[in-house]
Amino acid sequence: MPELQSGLTVFVPVYNEEAIVKPNTQRLLAYLESLNLPYEIIIGSNGSTDHTVPLLQELAASHPPVRFFHLPEKGVGTAFVQGVRMARFDRIVTVDMDLSIDLAFIARAGKLLETHDIVIGSKITGDQKRPWIRKFASNLFIQLARVLLGIGFHDYSIAAKGYQTKAIENYLDRVDKKTFYVVLLVFFATHDGARITEVPVSCCDMRGSRFNLVHEGFYKFGNLFLLWLRSCLSRFGPRIDKPPQTH
User: Fold this and answer.
1) What is the reported pLDDT for 204?
2) Which residues form the domain of 173?
3) Closest by alpha carbon to 179, among 160, 158, 154, 165?
4) Model pTM?
5) Would residue 223 count as lying in a domain?
6) Count of domains in the chain?
7) Most C-beta atoms within 10 A of its C-beta, which of 124, 161, 213, 226?
């Protein structure tokens, strides 16, 4: 990893977002410019097959703070790891390309990361406009994570999370290739005594999911139970050598 500077990296994973990648990146640039601090935007395409990558090339060419990479296979956890390893700054905030989370979270997380290792933006403790089935599944998952893993937070989605870059370096080889990586980061960091805080966020996300919800449900709940089982069987508690993987 490069030597880290004081500032903010905003990481945005994308998959086939040709319709919104340019206007929303420009909106994000405008917001970050208003914060008056060093920043960069790293956009990680994982498996995109539309015109997302050519559009990212144009954005990076015309806007120096924008950097991007493309991975041939879909895997947001893999993209996150790549984004962290590319980061120039000591704090990282993740958002979705649809910018469905209130952008004020970025500034708030950046400030909190001066004294915390992880900042969790929570839709459940904030305000959310999402389809009822997604809210129901999220609530069930969160309650199971609380009971099985002993982590009492309210949101393990990709967006609206902040990390001190140095604080999560040791976990990068142990996280999941897909969306379960947030749970693993929070799980490992919690049991290592990391400084984690949670703040409410506003979310308006009524567009269709980028994932097959049935497959995603089996994948996430399956990984949750596997992680619980492995942590129970391991003499070393939460320090698991390899994260559970389901396909």
Assistant:
1) 84
2) 5-132+153-208
3) 158
4) 0.89
5) no
6) 1
7) 161
19 is a domain residue = yes
Q: How confident is the model at residue 245 (pLDDT cuts 50, 70, 90)?
A: very low
Structural domain contains residue 39: yes
User: Is the C-alpha dihedral spanning 83, 88, 94, 98 positive or negative?
Assistant: negative
Question: Pick from 177, 178, 197, 201: which is nearest to 186 by CA?
Answer: 197
- Quote the pLDDT of residue 210: 59
Of 125, 102, 100, nearest to 197 by C-alpha is: 125
CATH number at residue 48: 3.90.550.10
Sign of CA dihedral 237, 239, 241, 246: positive
